[in-house]
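User: My instructor asked us to take a sequence, write out its structure as tokens, and then describe one feature of it. I'm not sure where to start. Here is the sequence I was given:
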Amino acid sequence: MANSYTVLADLSAGRCSTAVEVRILRFWEAKNINKRGQLMSLEMLLIDEHSTLVQGSVPASLQLMFRGRLTEGSVYTLSGFDVTRSNPKFRLSDGPVSIRFNEGTAFEKIATTSRIIPTEHFRFRPYEQILELANTGKQLPGIILDLWDVDVCVSMFDSLALAFHSKFDGYGREPRIVLVTAINPKIVSAGKLYLNGTSATRVFFDCETTVGKEALNRQDCPVVEQTREGLQQRWFMPKRSSPSQYLSSTTLF
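Assistant: Let's start with the prediction itself. The structure tokens for your sequence are:
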């Protein structure tokens, strides 16, 4: 008997017995910083063929059952999970529901699929919306450094700082485009905006993503301008030649 499928947009609260076919975009550990970094859950971002994004969660008590099967970028069939209302705090998707794994959840990687499921998905916010989100804890948006006309500071700590240093040192040159996901915006003394990294934060340079590649191509494209001397061609250059100078990282032990 063929499995029955549903899509993420049609999920409603309760136990879901039908299967969804999704790609894991990213997954990470959620830890309780007030309890010496105790693991609370494995969190993930799931996307389907309609580009619907839903956050998934594996409780810490079940992480050994599922962790070894999690591969970023792979496609899975998922059924027998619980559908819950999305947490209104620190949201990574705009969907009203989230997926929670349980002991009876069936979770299988599939080698091929006839469905066209996106391989990346980002939620960028303009500077004005980032300011509105600051200190609210409502969302963890993404940003593209070097496309804003204002100065901000992106702060990273602990393992995130180590990962960034390793990535930056191994890149071999100054990146022109820096994409940072899942940041927590804060306004501190003197009204300065800080974009704090979280356990879900990832950093991408230049052409590592389609979005970054498109932004880089825009920098490299010639622009024709009308002047009093006639038509002149110039190359678009960002106002900041080194976006990495706006990244700060601190490793705490």
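For the description part of your assignment, you could build on this observation: The chain has four helices and 17 strands. Try explaining in your own words what that tells you about the chain.
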